[in-house]
Structures are given as C-alpha cells and as structure tokens.
C-alpha cells in the first residue's frame, strides 16, 4: 500500500497485514495494519515502525516521500514488536539524531534489541519537542497497554498519534473512519478494547481525565492499528469512556460447550427464559466460537451464564481456556450463574461457579445440574432458571 498524506506534510507510511489470523490469543479474521507516520518539518520525524517482516515496505513508503537518511528523529511510542520490530534496521538506515521514548521505553528497547548505543532521549508527560513549525507534546500512558506506552500529540494539527489506544485489528485499503461502515468499525474497536485494554480500564479513565485537564482537542486520532479517526474523534473517545466504566446493558451471554448436546439443550431452554423476560441474549458454543469473539460480547453484557458438562471430574477444556483468558481481562460488574449436565460425579457446575466468584462475578445461585439427558420437567426448570437470571438483569439496571 502506497503512503498517504493524512494532513499537510504528515504521511501514513504503514503496512497492511492481510494474512495474520492470530494475535497473542486474539483472533484476527480480517487481518490488521501496522501504522507508522512520517512528519515532514524542519526536523523530519518518524513515529513508530512496523513488524519486522514488513520493514522493506515501510522503507519503500518512506522513500516515496523523502530519502530515509534525511529523517532526523525516531519516536518510539510503544516497544511491542509489531511496532518496534523494524527499529534496528531503521536506526541502521536513517542514523537518527535522536530516538525519543519513555524511560520504560528505553529500558524495554534495550531489553529487546540490546543496543545501549542508540541515541536515546527519554521524554515524559509535559515535555515538548519542536520540529520547526510543529510541536510534539508527549503523553506517557504507562500500562496502556505496556509499561513503556506513550502517545504523541501535535497541537498545531490537533492530531494524536495514539499508539495502541483507539486501534482496531482490521486490514482495509481505506485509511479513515468515514470511508468504512461506521458500525463495523466500532465493532472492531470494541473487540480490540475488550481483548487488549479492558483490564486497564481504570487507567483509561485517568487518560480521559488527563486529556480533559490538558484541554487537548482532536481533529484526528491516528492509532498504530486500523483506521484513523477523523470524522468524529469524539465518538471513539465517548466509546472508550463507556467501555472503561464497563457500562452494561440488558444483555445476557450463555457460553457453553457440550459433548452429547444435553448441556446444549439446557442452554436453549435457559435462553427461552431470558427471552420471556425481554432480555437480549446470545448463545456461544465454545467449540465454534473463538474466545476473543466471546470477550467482545462480554464488554457490554450484564449476565454471564456458563455451561459445561462434567468431563473427567472437571469442566470442558474450551471452558477452562475461556476462563483463564477472561480472568486476566478482569470484566467488572457482571452477574452470573452456571449450569451443565453430568453422569455421576458432576463437578463442572461447582467449578464454574467458583471460577466466577474468583472473577468477582456476583453469582446468583448455586447453579443448575442435570443428570445425563434432561427431561421435559428438567427443561421447564431451565426456563425458570433463565427467567430468574433475566429478572436479576433487569433489577441490576
Ligand atoms: C470422556 C467422558 C468423561 C466423563 N467424565 C465424567 C465425570 O468425571 N463425571 C461425571 O459426572 N460425568 C462424566 N461424564 C458424563 C457426562 O458428563 C455426561 O454424559 C453428560 O450428560 C454430557 O453432557 P453433554 O451432552 O452436554 O455433553 C463423562 C463423559 C465422557 C464422554
């Protein structure tokens, strides 16, 4: 993909990764982009690089605008290798006067690439760098989502290079929010938030406060993945505010696995009960749905209803996988309950209940266990179980 001028003298020089399908446990069925940006001013400055196998494409893009050796500064907003993987080659090629990064960024770059000799210049919130007609204001965003993370704001252009914040894993030929379907874009941004930033929600709240305190205005928010927000940057800021406050709606998820469909028939009956109470619900069979798709739905759900048959005195491995993943992402303010079929010892429901308690989910009841295939009467109990959860969902509003 050719470079693209996003504002006068400011270029997207990133690359599109159409083929990536998995990102540290996160499914990326539609690929991603690694965005890097070049600001041509008295001091020519490159903001971030790309994943190492794409370094030639990055350099080609830069060459279409300037001779890479004319670049004066490199800013590393985030050290994770999808953005810094090309830093060693780029530093070798451009020989920058300075490499700007946070204090933690300098440490992490050395821990990754073992080059203490690079011309590091450590910067933090409140520090400004003049590029000539423009200024870069650095904004440290520690643990959003790594200790080294920072963002760079150019007040003259009201432009924020937001690193991994406000990103989406979505490979497109379009570069801006107004060129794609708005709902689809927001869904990608929500999935990204739920799978990468959810656990840092209190820090997102702090960032929103800092942005307000500093009076930063945005014409454009340019993340390191996906599309650039220019039509209405306020929309993604408002979404981050809601997601980080973990605002939920009257929605319940029934997440389950099943070997011989008894747990599945319980799931369907429970969903009938939820429907009778007017609750939006979604069913996810974990054999068919990736954990990261489930997390995207967890974001605004109020109830988590987890089902597993007992397998070898435990729960299904897909459920254990989801619980490990979800626990790390720390969803808050949920209510929940467990269910499942069993044959003789029936431990799964208790294990699911315990896992939810560990995640601080407000567990509504001890759960519903049924021996082998449920009878009609059993299914009526499942419907009532769903209704009880539905009423709790409404009461929590
Ligand atoms: C390989 C295997 C291991 C099982 N282990 C247990 C067990 O340890 N304890 C138990 O109560 N039931 C056990 N069961 C029985 C299932 O829990 C029971 O068949 C249940 O109805 C399956 O629910 P499903 O139709 O939703 O898969 C096991 C079944 C299979 C196939």
From TrEMBL:
Family statement: In the N-terminal section; belongs to the zinc metallo-hydrolase group 3 family.
Domain named Flavodoxin-like: residues: 252-390
Protein name: Flavodoxin/nitric oxide synthase
GO molecular function annotations of the record: electron transfer activity; FMN binding; metal ion binding; oxidoreductase activity
SMART domains in the cross-refs: Lactamase_B (SM00849)
Gene3D superfamilies assigned: 3.40.50.360, Ribonuclease Z/Hydroxyacylglutathione hydrolase-like
InterPro entries: Flavodoxin/NO_synth, Flavoprotein-like_sf, Metallo-B-lactamas, ODP_dom, RibonucZ/Hydroxyglut_hydro, Rubredoxin-O_OxRdtase
């Amino acid at each position: 993909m050719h470079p693209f001028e996003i504002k006068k003298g400011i270029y997207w020089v990133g690359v599109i990764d159409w083929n990536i399908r998995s990102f540290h446990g996160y499914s990326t069925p539609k690929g991603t982009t690694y965005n890097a940006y070049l600001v041509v001013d008295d001091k020519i400055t490159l903001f971030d690089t790309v994943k190492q196998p794409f370094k030639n494409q990055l350099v080609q893009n830069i060459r279409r605008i300037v001779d890479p050796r004319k670049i004066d500064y490199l800013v590393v907003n985030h050290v994770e290798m999808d953005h810094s993987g090309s830093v060693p080659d780029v530093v070798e090629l451009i020989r920058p006067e300075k490499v700007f990064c946070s204090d933690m960024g300098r440490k992490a770059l050395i821990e990754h690439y073992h080059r203490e000799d690079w011309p590091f210049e450590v910067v933090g919130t409140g520090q400004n760098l003049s590029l000539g007609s423009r200024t870069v204001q650095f904004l440290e965003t520690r643990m959003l989502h790594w200790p080294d993370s920072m963002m760079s704001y150019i007040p003259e252009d009201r432009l924020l290079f937001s690193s991994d914040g406000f990103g989406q894993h979505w490979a497109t030929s379009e570069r801006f929010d107004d060129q794609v379907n708005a709902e689809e874009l927001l869904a990608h941004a929500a999935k990204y938030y739920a799978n990468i930033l959810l656990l840092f929600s209190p820090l997102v709240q702090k960032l929103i406060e800092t942005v307000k305190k500093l009076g930063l205005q945005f014409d454009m928010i340019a993340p390191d993945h996906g599309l650039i927000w220019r039509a209405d940057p306020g929309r993604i800021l408002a979404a981050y505010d809601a997601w980080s406050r973990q605002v939920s709606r009257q929605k319940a998820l029934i997440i389950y696995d099943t070997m011989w469909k008894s747990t599945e028939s319980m799931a369907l009956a429970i969903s009938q009960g939820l429907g009778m109470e007017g609750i939006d619900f979604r069913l996810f069979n974990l054999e068919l749905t990736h954990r990261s798709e489930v997390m995207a739905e967890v974001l605004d759900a109020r109830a988590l209803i987890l089902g597993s048959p007992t397998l070898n005195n435990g729960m299904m491995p897909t459920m254990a996988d989801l619980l490990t993943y979800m626990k790390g992402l720390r969803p808050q303010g949920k209510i929940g309950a467990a269910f499942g079929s069993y044959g003789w010892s029936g431990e799964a429901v208790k294990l699911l209940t315990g896992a939810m308690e560990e995640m601080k989910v407000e567990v509504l009841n001890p759960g519903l266990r049924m021996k082998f295939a449920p009878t009609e009467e059993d299914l009526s109990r499942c419907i009532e179980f769903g209704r009880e959860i539905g009423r709790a969902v409404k009461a929590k509003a």
